[in-house]
Design brief:
Largest sheet: 12 strands, mixed
Oligomer: single chain
Radius of gyration: 18 Å
Number of helices: 5
Distance between the termini: 31 Å
CATH architecture of the largest domain: 2-Layer Sandwich
CATH class of the largest domain: Alpha Beta
Structural class: alpha+beta
């Protein structure tokens, strides 16, 4: 099922069974309404087509890619309450400003969302606390709403657009915090192209250059590992 919205983008259902719906969300479309009347969202499109649906997780408006909905509340709760255990793999593709010399590595930090600005900030972890932070037993993690975040990064390609250097990165989430990839990209000094909120100075794709490419999780009722892949939009082949 595909449907146009007012930005001429398309929402595509790539999987459906008795309990779940997996869609490929375009950039520019909200996952759910922010309360503004008349918002066309992934949720509203699926509700109009399938009836009652429940969102399991969200993507930022300008992030494209894989998004999961449940057909009943029990399935939604089963997935949400065991999300970290159920998810086997979460990979994103992004184009970052500048040239990154490392081929592969980890970014680990505390994240904290400022309740006034609604912006998430990254803070370094004392090396002495790192193992405790990874295990969730570090007491400082409970201060001021700080959350441990870990992101694995793999360089796919280095190139240039209009003479400016960019790096295409594959991100794999070890934790799933709000804006995690966007914050970590800014923190290492290479914001995602098009992400003005988190420090980007350029916008070569005319959108946030972030795409949710791979999602693998254990089905809450069948126990099978479900793996889905979404090809990045053509814009991402610019480098």
């Amino acid at each position: 099922m595909r449907k146009n919205n007012n930005t001429k983008s398309k929402l595509e259902v790539i999987y459906e069974d008795d309990w779940l719906i997996v869609v490929d969300k375009p950039a520019g479309m909200l996952s759910m309404s922010t309360g503004k009347e008349g918002d066309v969202t992934a949720y509203s499109i699926l509700r109009d087509h399938f009836g009652r649906v429940f969102i399991v997780h969200r993507l930022d408006r300008e992030t494209s890619g894989l998004l999961v909905f449940a057909k009943d509340e029990e399935t939604k709760l089963s997935l949400q309450e065991n999300w970290n255990e159920a998810v086997q793999e979460r990979k994103y593709i992004a184009i970052l400003e500048g040239e990154i010399s490392d081929d592969e590595g980890w970014i680990e930090s505390w994240l904290y969302e400022n309740p006034k600005s609604m912006k998430v900030h990254s803070y370094p972890i004392d090396p002495r606390d790192l193992e405790a932070a990874r295990s969730g037993s570090c007491k400082i993690a409970k201060r001021n709403g700080w959350q441990f975040a870990a992101t694995h990064c793999k360089t796919l390609h280095r190139g240039s657009i209009e003479g400016k250097p960019y790096t295409k990165i594959e991100f794999e989430l070890e934790t799933g915090r709000k804006n995690q990839i966007r914050v970590h990209s800014e923190w290492i000094g290479h914001p995602i192209a098009g992400d003005r909120k988190y420090g980007a100075q350029t916008n070569p794709l005319g959108r946030l250059a972030l795409h949710a490419q791979t999602l693998s999780f254990i089905h809450p009722w069948t126990g099978k590992i479900m793996t889905f892949t979404s090809r990045p939009p053509r814009q991402f082949s610019v480098i």
